[in-house]
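Subject: Response regulator structure
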Amino acid sequence: MSKTILVVDDSASVRQVVSIALKGAGYDVITGVDGKDALQKLNGQRVHLIISDVNMPNMDGITFVSEVKKLPAYKFTPIIMLTTESQEDKKKQAQAAGAKAWVTKPFQPPQMLAAVAKLIAP
């Protein structure tokens, strides 16, 4: 049974790179273009992990994480922030909202896959 990962980023190229890496590692991938779009995709289907950008239009990543954590079905879904931001205060905000890990762009797919593997129990 493969695990499903929701990838949220307003950059089509980032969504593509992340999706290719995840699919290559055997994961199923759903994508969202921003926090609002991604919340609509969380319609009760099983999602094992979420990877989200921080800076996005309509709903930024930290607000998105806070909203996800309010949904009973996704309260315990691990979230990785994937972002160009490396500021400590942003990291603290994301952690406070419920993010479990932080991967800085540009990233190497193996580095991201290692973070994913740590958070998704086999």
